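Why do we care about 3D structure at all? Because function follows from shape, and shape follows, mostly, from sequence. That is the central idea of this module. The next example makes it concrete: a single protein chain, its amino acid sequence, and then its structure expressed as C-alpha cells.
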Amino acid sequence: MALIRFASNRQGVIGLIFALALIPLLAAGGAAVDLSRAYLVKQRLGAALDAAGLAVGTASGATEAELNSLMLDYFNANYPASEIGAPATPSISIKDSEITITATADVDTTLMRIVNIDKITVAASTTIIRETTGLEVVLVLDNTGSMRGSKLRSLKEASRTFVDIVFGNETEPEFLKVGIVPFTGAVNVGTNINFGDTYTTNNPPDNSFLAFQAFVNPKPGKWRGCVKARVTPFDTTDDSQLEPNVGGGKWERYLFPDNFFANPWRFLNAFNFPFVGPNKFCPVELLPLTNNKQEVLNKIGEMIANGVTHINLGAVWGWRVISPSEPYTAGVAYDNDKYNKAIIIMTDGSNFISNAFGQYSGYGRLAEGKLGTTNRFRAQNELDNRLTDVCTKIKAKGVLVYTIVFQLFSRSIQNLMRNCATDNGKFYNSPSGADLESAFRAIGSELSNLRIGR
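And the structure:
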C-alpha cells in the first residue's frame, strides 16, 4: 500500500526533475557570465598588445633585449596586474618588417565551477607591419695623421655602433645601402672600379714611376687608387663630364713625387704604402654603396691614420658615391620618394696645405697654384670655401648632411662644419670619445627612424 502511495506522489518526482534540471541551467547561466568576463579580458589583453606592438614597431635601432623591455613596459602599463585576468608574460617575434606579439590570460570562473571548470584561458595576438623606406648613407671619415692612436680607435668603435644601429638584426637588408669614404689630402677610388673605358684614370705622367715599379717589384698594381682633384669647379660637383672644355676631364692618378730625403721610393714595399712611395698619404680604398653589413664593418677595420686634411675632397667623393650618376651608379635618383639619402662628414682637424719640403695632396704641391694661389693661408681658406660649395650643392639635391667635429676646438672650423650640415640639429661637437660615440648613435637612431615607420 505504501508503495502505491509513493508511486502516486507526483510532487517528489517534480522536485527531483527540477533539481536535476537545475544543474545544467546553472551551468549555462554561469557560462554566460564567465564567458562575458573572459571576453572582457580578451579585449583588454588585445588592447595592451596593440600598444606594445606599436611602441616596438616604431623603435628602430634597438637591440632585441631593448625591444623586449619596451614591449613589457607598454604591455604592463596597459594591462595592470591588479585587474581581472592573470596573464602570462607576452612573447615577441620579429621577422623582416613584421612584428607579432602574443599573450594568454587565465580567467577564474564563478558559477562554472559547478561543472568543475575552474578557469578559462584566453589568448590574443597583434601583428604590426612596419612600412620600410629605403636609406642610402655614406660615412665620410677623417683618416689623417692627427687621428692616429686612440682617436682612430674611438672613430672605429663609434662607426661600428652606427652600423649596428642602422642594420639592426639584418645582415643584408633590402632597403639599406651604406658607403664608406676615408679621406686625407686625397681619396682612394681603387684600381679595379668599373669607370668604363672613358672613365679610366689617365696614365701616370711620370714614366719613372713605371720603370721604378718594374725594377723594385715586377708585380703590377703599385698605384693603389688615389686620384687628384679635378679642375675647378668640377672638384666640387658630382658632374661626370669628361671633356676638358665641357666638364672636368678624366681623373689623374695621385703619385707622391719621389724624393731621396722626404719620400724615398727605394724603400717601397707592400707594408709601408701609407708612409713612403707614390701612395704616401693615400688612405684605404673607399667602399661604394652596399647592403652587406660585414663589408662595411671590414672597411671600417681597415682604416689607417696618415696624411693631411682636405675635408672638401672627402665630402665630394661621398657625394659621388651616393649620386645616381657616374662614376658610381648604385645610388637611386634624387627624386625617388621611397628613399632618403644622407652623408655624414666627420673630422678632427681643419683643412691644411703646405709648401713645406715633402708635402703633397690631391691638389699637388702648393707651389703649383691649383687652388688659385701659392699662399698657404689663402689656399687653406680656399679649401674651406670649396667645402662650403660642396655642402651647398649636396643639400640642394635633398641629401641630408650631418657633420661631426671630434676634439676640435677651433670656433671657425666648428662654424664651418655647422654651416655645412643641413641644420644646427645635424651638427655634433664631440670633445671626447664618448661624445663621438653618442653622436654616431644619435644619427644612427634618427636615420633608422626615417627608414622604418609604423
